[in-house]
Amino acid sequence: MNLDFLTPGTGADVVARSSMESQSRAAAGRFELRDGWNVAVEYSRSMDAAAAAVGWADVSHLTKLELQGESDALDAAAGARLPFGAAVRRHDAWWCRLTQTRALAVGGQPVRGDAAGVDVVDVTSSFAALTLVGPLAREVFARFCAIDLRPRVAPVRALRPGSVGRQPAIVIREGELRFLFLFGWATSEYMWSVVADAGTHLGGQPLGVDQLAAFPIAEADGA
User: Fold this and answer.
1) C-alpha span between 99 and 105 (Å, rounded)
2) Which helix (H) or strand (E) holds 24?
3) Does residue 1 have a pLDDT over 70?
4) CATH number among 3.20.20.150, 3.30.1360.120, 3.40.980.20, 3.40.50.2300, domain 15-62+126-213
């Protein structure tokens, strides 16, 4: 029996898609192919709303790698000490210690193949992600979660695992007006709806990934 049908396709015609793509299309997003993903890069007339209130972007295409190993080995893979409660910005990625022996790297291509003593698993398709930006981004979160994101409690680089929209999630404060949060892929359509409901009531609109550049992300941590 020929079992070739069990082998995943690797051709250039294979396009990865976010499970929130249909909602992005319904909001009139413009899409481009980026690193094998169909990504919403821009929405018309959304920047003014984000600058004045809030915007949200589907960033599920970001690479997400789970690392397991001894604490020192995880630090070595990141090239920096990974504390609890704070994300470290290295190699264009956020490095997040979740337990003593488990970490998550989000974005970029942060892990060398020779990372000694560390097992690395690509979990990109396990976690969907949204980025919220704007002066009312924190107020949007307050509409559907109890995580305290006030600046004195959650400064830039704060890492806050918890319940968001009654679903397990991880929130990273990427900048003064910028938050990244990750959640289970299976809940992504629901999570978009929760964010959109809260955001539109505050005058917000969805954004494309190219429009996020207007909201600075924290600089990389030192070597």
Assistant:
1) 13
2) helix 21-26
3) no
4) 3.30.1360.120
> Rounded distance, CA 125 to CA 171, Å?
18
Q: For residues 171 and 162, what is the distance between their CA atoms, to the nearest angstrom?
A: 8
The pLDDT of residue 14: 85
Q: What is the mean pLDDT of the chain?
A: 89
The answer to whether the CB of 140 falls within 8 A of the CB of 54 is: yes
How close are the terminal C-alpha atoms of the chain, in Å? 53
Distance separating alpha carbons of residues 162 and 38, to the nearest angstrom: 29
Q: What is the pLDDT of residue 4?
A: 45
Report the candidate in 133, 135, 134, 129 with the shortest Cα–Cα distance to residue 164: 129
Global confidence as pTM: 0.90
| Predicted confidence (pLDDT) per residue in 15-34, tens digit | 999 999 999 999 999 999 99
Query: So where are the chain's domains?
Result: 15-62+126-213, 64-122
Q: Is the pLDDT of residue 49 over 90?
A: no
CA-CA-CA-CA dihedral for 82, 168, 174, 57, to nearest 10: 140
- d(C-alpha 16, C-alpha 38), whole Å: 6
Whose CA is closest to 207, among 62, 52, 61, 40?
40
Average pLDDT estimate for 56-68: 96
Residue 202, exposed/middle/buried by CB under 10 A (0-12, 13-18, 19+)?
middle
